[in-house]
Amino acid sequence: MTIRENLEQMECTNLSPYACLSKNSKGRDREEKQCDIRPVFQRDRDRILHSKSFRRLKDKTQVFLTPEGDHYRTRMTHTLEVSQNARTIAKALRLNEDLVEAIALGHDLGHTPFGHAGERALNSVCPLGFVHSEQSVRTVEVLEKNGQGLNLTYEVRDGIRNHQTSCMPSTLEGKIVRMSDKIAYIHHDMDDAIRAGILTDADVPKSIGDVIGYTLGERLDHFIHDIVTNSAGKDDIIMSEPVANAMKELRAFMFENVYQNPVAKSEESKAENLIITLYEYYLKNMDLIPRDMLNLMDRDGTPKEQIVCDYVGAMTDRFAIAKYEEIYIPKTWHG
């Protein structure tokens, strides 16, 4: 028996009857020989971790555009916090931690530069639309490895595709990531807002604080404990009604005071205009897009608008700014 088979047997013995077992995966689009050491979801986790799109997350905006300070979150630190929260919950509920981690690490791979401002910009100009969760799936299925994709399992791709509020994953592990994503961004976006001087802990309404706590640490601890307590022994991932309502109220509070705050968002219109300008430029200058992306038009018949979204959407904040300057800002001429 291989190490992988031993690990799969341990899952059968130790995990909850509601867990998604590695040996029961619906598999990959392209069949592959099994690894002798790693079960399929662990292997997917590793593929995501070593991907180019994962590395680019370190220079993509979470909430605050180009903040002055080293301690503000990026899209990568957000991803790692989602993963940590999700793994804590999965371990406590005896669910598949490898699957949770793979989904969490991959859920934002298709995010644009400049956070949701970049996503809104591409969605407004591309006739095909642009949604970062779908682009994350496209990234792992098609764009990675020069058009080969990562060939991930169905369950990981399902969790990535359905991590947003309006969707529902097919596994409990995916549902954990979906909920952990919201917990993470509400928690760390408030922390960053406090760091930026936009909020203080005292600004949190009493109706929220009395239910889930008045400090960042208290609220995070309360969310995780509430999910574990209410989901234990059940074929679902749920919060208690009071905590779920407090979370909705806190999210609304964050939208009013941070996500739509003119100070925090003062640069977003510039970012949106930059992304729209790059999209329109590359649509007219397709020959400047990397060859591996252009090859998708010949191979799969991918529309040129999608190819431009693939290219611009994959950029980091810094690279997008550099490309804009290269194209539109006059350089000093040396005779």
Give the N-to-C terminal Cα separation.
72 Å
Largest sheet: none
The average pLDDT score comes to 94
Helix-strand category: mainly alpha
- Runs in which pLDDT lies below 50 for 5 or more consecutive residues are none
Helical residue percent band: 55-70%
Question: What characteristic shape results from the CA principal axes?
Answer: flat
Helices and strands, in N-to-C order?
HHHHHHHHHHHHHHHH
Count every beta strand, where a strand is a DSSP E run of 2 or more residues. 0
Layout of helices and strands:
Layout: H1 3-14, H2 40-49, H3 52-56, H4 75-92, H5 97-106, H6 115-125, H7 132-147, H8 154-161, H9 172-195, H10 206-212, H11 216-231, H12 241-259, H13 268-284, H14 291-300, H15 304-314, H16 317-328
Descriptive account of the structure:
By secondary structure, the chain is mostly helical. The chain is 61% helix and 0% strand. It is built from 16 helices and no strands. Helix 4 packs antiparallel against helix 5, helix 5 packs across helix 8 and helix 9 packs antiparallel against helix 11. The longest helix has 24 residues. The chain starts with a helix and ends in a 7-residue tail after the last helix.
